[in-house]
Design brief:
Elements lengths: L3 E7 L3 H11 L4 E8 L6 H14 L6 E4 L13 H4 L21 H11 L5 E4 L4 H9 L3 H4 L2 E5 L15 H5 L1 H8 L5 E4 L1 H4 L3 E3 H8 L8 H19 L4 E3 L1 H10 L4 E10 L10 E4 L4 E6 L4 E7 L5 E7 L1 H12 L5
Parallel strand pairs: 1-2, 1-4, 2-3, 4-5, 5-6, 6-13
Antiparallel strand pairs: 7-8, 9-10, 9-13, 11-12
Bound molecules: alpha-D-ribofuranose and calcium ion.
The site of calcium ion has 9 residues, from helix 1.
Length: 332
């Protein structure tokens, strides 16, 4: 099978950087562009980090486009606790010859979807602001995509920013709502599976004695940026670092690593406590109400049509092996 033309939409932070490295080292994918959105850190730092990661990977030819520097209507919420002030765990980035193209992210996404009509894949691992803007810019954009893999949301587990909301959807609920109503072929890779895709601290410690002195630049860089990520995740009570964004990439490259169900998903945009919640209809049923004057009455059931594939199971060990092998994070 020829490599899948793929765009990554990133808010490069640490796991975005790992996802980009994994995509560039996955023969199943051909990364044709990267679009940047504010999220983990501000857009200027996302761009800087993304260009640096491409240089580390020897992929400076990949086009990088700047997108939204804030959510559609809300204030930006960054996550320097997990990613560091610079978004890359304080690890120095190499001087880069890579440059940001003039074309705005949304326009590039729409153009690429037309040029690769029916074949372009988009892996969105940040707030969905750019993707929503592309949907608004060109109504045909969503259905031109072969697959839109979204790292975000949660079906049957709590959020990670609030009890209701996962970070990418929390940052821009309105954008997520637009995307899930767009008709795109969405696979939602949410916390249900990414929290089970842990890079464990014990595995990291195995690398400590061997990696800094050897391995290729990608392996050393990945090892370096994970240190901050692990510290924060361990402080947050996890037993390792969830590889949120790399799993979204792997789900496209090797779909057998996850198991999903076609379900209806809507994103809450009104709630004071629930803004950004992915409301996943696991039962596939909604009661139908009719007005009876001063009250409503349940008169039947409706079955909302699924609008995406929701990942509910993950092959954790095979995924971690794939991630470590492709990034050279091996102790021997
Ligand atoms: O909830 C995890 C997601 O939020 C990941 O994409 C991480 O990079 C942050 O953007
Ligand atoms: Ca991200």
């Amino acid at each position: 099978m020829s490599a899948l033309p793929t765009v990554l939409d990133v808010d490069t932070g640490i796991d975005d950087a790992l996802a980009l490295l994994l995509a560039l080292r996955s023969p199943e994918l051909r990364v044709v562009a990267v679009t940047c959105v504010a999220g983990n850190v501000t857009l200027d730092r996302v761009l800087r980090n993304t260009l640096g990661v491409l240089t580390v990977a020897g992929a400076e030819e990949v086009a990088v486009a700047a997108g939204a520097d804030r959510p559609l209507v809300r204030r930006l919420t960054t996550a320097t606790f997990f990613h560091g002030v610079d978004g890359i765990g304080g690890v120095p980035l190499p001087d880069t010859g890579a440059r940001v193209v003039d074309e705005p992210a949304a326009a590039l996404l729409c153009r690429m979807a037309r040029e690769h009509a029916g074949e372009l894949n988009l892996v969105a691992v940040g707030p969905l602001t750019n993707v929503a803007l592309a949907c608004r810019l060109d109504a045909g954009f969503p259905r031109r995509l072969r697959r839109l893999v979204v790292m975000g949301g949660a079906a049957g587990v709590a959020g990670n920013v609030t009890p209701a909301a996962e970070a990418n959807f929390f940052n821009d609920p309105e954008a997520a709502a637009v995307v899930f109503q767009s008709g795109a072929a969405v696979t939602m890779v949410g916390l249900d599976v990414t929290l089970r895709a842990l890079f464990e601290a014990k595995r990291y410690r195995l690398l400590r004695d061997v990696l800094p002195g050897r391995g290729d630049a990608v392996a050393r860089f990945a090892y370096g940026i994970m240190e901050r990520y692990l510290e924060a995740d361990l402080a947050a009570g996890l037993e390792g670092s969830p590889l949120h964004d790399p799993l979204a990439v792997a789900a496209l490259a090797q779909p057998s690593l996850i198991r999903s169900r076609p379900l209806h998903v809507a994103v809450e945009t009104e709630g004071r406590l629930t803004a950004g919640q992915s409301v996943v209809n696991l039962a596939g049923v909604v009661e139908r109400l009719e007005s009876r004057g001063d009250h409503d009455d349940v008169v039947g059931l409706t079955h909302p049509a699924p609008n995406c594939e929701v990942a509910l199971e993950v092959e954790t060990a095979p995924f971690i092996d794939l991630f470590c092998t492709r990034l050279g994070l091996l102790p021997d």
